[in-house]
Amino acid sequence: MNAPVLRIRALRCEYPGEAGPVHALRHVDLDVARSSFLAIMGPSGSGKTTLLHCAAGLQNPTSGSIELDGQDLRGLDQTQLARLRRRRVGFVFQSFNLLPALSAVDNVELPLRLDSRTTEPARTTALLTRVGLGNRGSHRPHQLSGGQKQRVAVARALITDPDIVFADEPTGALDIRSAREVLRLMRELADHGQTIIMVTHDPVAASYSDAVLFLADGRIVDRLPRPTAQQVAGRMAVLVESAESAVNQ
Ligand SMILES: Nc1ncnc2c1ncn2[C@@H]1O[C@H](COP(=O)(O)OP(=O)(O)OP(=O)(O)O)[C@@H](O)[C@H]1O
């Protein structure tokens, strides 16, 4: 593999808990290739969100290293981490997180404005066209369907030309048809060179990725390249069952 765009080594993350520390990530090593679409799955509480947040510079791990395109996040102070989040990564959330008072165009341009950078109307229009909403630029979120809102959110994530787009349950709030549209879009983006890391509970969503990483109890326990939804569902059933029997012991 060429130099990975994301390189994680010996990552551990603990939270304080009443009965001692909660080990959310125990020892995670991970290389993510540029232009790849990676899905992260695992039972509830297995550490998916923690891994996504650490990798995106939203949260400091307890120990271990994270390199984004060769830059070690460990040495960065909060201001530098905020700049890295604004410029080098994009986010897509289950709940869209669009500002209701702003048009689609203004929502897409928001990351540039927050970073005091100039906007280029032609680029915004091109991005909205790329996500299939070229004629919806003046619409506000309440005038858009769930799938359209999420496609605006994808365009917003792309406006800074990020190294990686992190998507946390991007189809969790969508009906099946809208979810498929968003997933097809993400697949197309990855085919055109965009690196995407997506946390999902949905085996069908995971089947759009190049590979699925399975977490259990804070560790990577399996990896499935070129996944089918059936294969993913089968592996998840085994992991959920063993997580449940561990809790009941
Ligand atoms: N802020 C926190 N304080 C204490 N414990 C936390 C905190 N955030 C997460 N945890 C714990 O860390 C572990 C991993 O949580 P995380 O949210 O990363 O899992 P997840 O796989 O994303 O779960 P889900 O699928 O339910 O969203 C869980 O045991 C969780 O209870």
UniProtKB/TrEMBL annotation:
Highest taxon in the source lineage: Bacteria
Coiled coil regions, renumbered to chain: none
Stored Pfam families: ABC_tran (PF00005)
UniProt keyword Transport, yes or no: yes
InterPro entries attached to this UniProt entry: AAA+_ATPase, ABC_transporter-like_ATP-bd, ABC_transporter-like_CS, ABC_transpr_LolD-like, MacB-like_ATP-bd, P-loop_NTPase
Keywords: ATP-binding, Nucleotide-binding, Transport
Protein name stated in the entry: ABC transporter ATP-binding protein
Species in which this protein is naturally found: Nonomuraea rosea
Record lineage: Bacteria, Bacillati, Actinomycetota, Actinomycetes, Streptosporangiales
Record Gene3D superfamilies: P-loop containing nucleotide triphosphate hydrolases
ABC transporter domain span: 6-242
Gene Ontology molecular-function annotations: ATP binding
